Known about the structure:
- The complex is a heterodimer.
- Chain A has helices spanning 2-6, 34-41, 79-83, 135-139, 182-185, and strands at residues 11-18, 23-33, 49-54, 74-78, 88-93, 96-97, 107-109, 122-128, 163-166, 173-174.
- Chain A is of the alpha+beta class.
- The mean pLDDT of chain A is 95.
- Chain B is mostly helical.
- Chain B has one domain (2-190).
- Chain B starts with a helix and ends in a 12-residue tail after the last helix.
- Chain A binds chain B through residues 21, 23, 25, 66-69, 139-140, 157-160, 165, 167, 170-172, and chain B through 36-37, 39-40, 97, 100, 105, 109, 113, 115, 166-167, 169-173.
Amino acid sequence: MDDILKLAPLEERIYRHRCVEAWSIVVPWIGYSFSTIAKLVEPTPKAKYVAFQSYYDPKQMPQGRWAGIDFPYVEGLRLDEAMNPLALLCVGMYGETLANQDGAPLRMVLPWKYGFKSIKSLVKIRFVGSQPPTTWNLAAPNEYGFYSNVNPNVDHPRWSQAKERRLGEFFKRPTLMFNGYGDQVASLYSGMDLKKNF
Amino acid sequence: MHSFLTSKWTKGALFALCLVPLGLLVWQGLHNDLGANPIERITHATGDWTLRFLIIALAVTPFRKILHLPDLIRFRRMLGLFAFFYGCLHFTTYIWLDKFFDVAEMLKDVQKRKFITVGFTAFVLMIPLALTSTAGWIRRLGGRRWQMIHRAIYISAIAGVIHYYWLVKSDVRKPLFYGALVFLLLAWRVGAWLQRRRAPAPVRAASPTM
Lengths: 198, 210
């Protein structure tokens, strides 16, 4: 962990965070762009995707087997998504190191995607050739796609994604395409049918 | 036991007890103690209590028979009406705090999202039952017909469980637990019905030809 902290200067980044269940919050995260670490690894041209894996210890997390999803939690990104400067390798929030429930000691933050894509408590990062499996997609493929970009025009089968409730606010506010980060990330998906690739 | 169950104080105390879940929500609301997403908490709490009261109301008859406490019947209507009361609160949080009274949005939801379709069905079915819960309506409809109509509560309870099961994202232990309770309570009725059918028909009058 000390080595990771020394790789690059830490930045505070204030991102909108949008949960797939239609609430949102603004969080000051601490970390640096994932691309910093990725460039050090020098992935070969065969690497097309990045596969992430969370920590899982059934002894320490006895409720895990009741979660209804398979652990360890896994997530994935296309390599160009992971290299986008917005993709944050995160070590802290609110000026402090991450708490366990927030994904200590190391997590991803991907502000243009639904919250569950921002995997917590990383223990393994692999650069791979084909699209890696992702936990929620395995659990319910019709509800959670590989991309899971914030998109007010594509509803979750069980609820609308057009609006969200910012925690602490009474009225709902409209959800923005790519959670408002379209200028930075929309080009990653040009030409793609985002209704199909939800 | 008889005098305890028939005392008006018992009924009053039970009434107050049934209001505790609501009181707790109001108290927590006033003390800013409903967590990060209070509206979600209120929605879930009122939904939970609707289902719990439905189950409690459905448990009255089996308990009367098994424990030989016919006086329990005095509480059944009140318990059923509390299920409807919490159902109303649950529906109100949805239509107000989630949809902001946008009826077109709501109808779209009911049509499109099956967990809302079954939840809405469960709620709507409870309305006529609440309206016809008075002694006057029992008289007007006649006991048999009234009872027939009020069996719709079985559908409400089943639909309520399905609504909950379809809603949770992965850990289905709680909806399955409620489902098991509803199953047991309905199975008991099926058992009781089969037993009544098998029992010899009561002897009416001696036949004159004998």
